[in-house]
Amino acid sequence: MTTLPIALIQTRTPASPAAAFAHVEPLIREAAAGGAKLILTPEATNFLIQDRAKRDAVLTTADADEVVQKLRGLARELGVWLLIGSAIVKSGHDGDDRAANRSILIDDAGEVAATYDKLHVYDVDLPTGERWRESASIRPGDGAVIADTPWGKLGLTICYDIRFPQLHRALAKAGAVMISVPAAFTVPTGEAHWETLLRARAIETGAYVLAPAQAGTHEDGRRTWGRSTVVAPWGEVIANLDNDEPGVLFATLDFDAVARARNAVPQLTHDREFVLPS
User: Fold this and answer.
1) Whole-number Cα distances in Å, 38 to 30, 245, 270
2) In this protein, which residues make up the domain named CN hydrolase (predicted)?
């Protein structure tokens, strides 16, 4: 039996990189002291700024980003694997001044093991009147990413990606036994859909779903849902924070549960070609 002690970090990320690191560092240290070998932070760990001009004033490349580089050093110091759920960084695409919303997986030597740019950008008009156009400031990624870890393959997704089951199915079919869903969910959609979507993706893939979240009312006025959650391959919630306060959520993953779920319902092997409706 292979098991893995993990921790999800729930944050209320400030608007400046220096404050963001000061906020998340003690939580990561707490997670490592509690025995976690894989630690995951939420979407937008390096800063959370809605105003485009203010954001662009601190935006830099991942190699130069203060929070990313300090977190690499922290992973090395603590001897843990660390997923920066996402950092908002320059995309590196000439002619496109939009940022990338990028997950960065760091190994226990502080090296970058994998990166993933959010595929699906959040362009919505909610019944509450909230309007979001993430595509105006975030360049969507071009491909799915699966990363090797000492405990098995980790599929990378970010927030709004949770609504696209085909992505998660592709990750599972490529061998993912864990799928990360770092998020900054809005309150209306979080209250209505967060846990249901996470459980559905776990059931459909027979994989662990690991969802660290932003939480509470932020400096720029944004409100996020929190409720960081770990869902097992059979769809049961095995750990969650039932609030929107910063904190650490511990869980232990038993990878025999992946095999049990997939053997019981081998849906990943049952695809059939079909004719689309006209």
Assistant:
1) 13, 21, 32
2) 4-255
| Sign of torsion over alpha carbons 170, 172, 175, 178 | positive
Neighbours of 275 (CB within 10 A): 5
Q: Where are the domains of the chain?
A: 3-263
d(Cα 66, Cα 18) in Å, to the nearest integer?
7
* Segments in 13-154 forming alpha helices (H): 17-33, 52-58, 66-78
Q: What are the residue numbers of the active site? A: 43, 118, 159
Neighbours of 98 (CB within 10 A): 18
Q: Tell me the sheet residues that pair with 84.
A: 104
Tokens, residue 237:
């919630």
- Quote the pLDDT of residue 1: 59
DSSP, collapsed to helix, strand or coil, labels residue 136 as helix
Q: For the residues 18-24, what does the mean pLDDT come to?
A: 98
Specify whether the CB–CB gap between 49 and 15 falls below 8 A.
yes
CB 72 within 8 A of CB 106: yes
CB-based contact 152:178 (threshold 8 Å)? yes
Distance of CA 63 to the CA centre of its chain: 20
Q: Please state whether the predicted TM-score (pTM) of the whole model is above 0.85.
A: yes
Whole-angstrom Cα distance, residue 210 to residue 168? 12
Say which CATH topology domain 3-263 has. Nitrilase/N-carbamoyl-D-aminoacid amidohydrolase (3.60.110)
Contact (CB, 8 A) for 219 and 238? no
Q: 172: which 2 tokens?
A: 């599972």
Is the alpha carbon torsion for 215, 65, 86, 251 positive or negative? negative
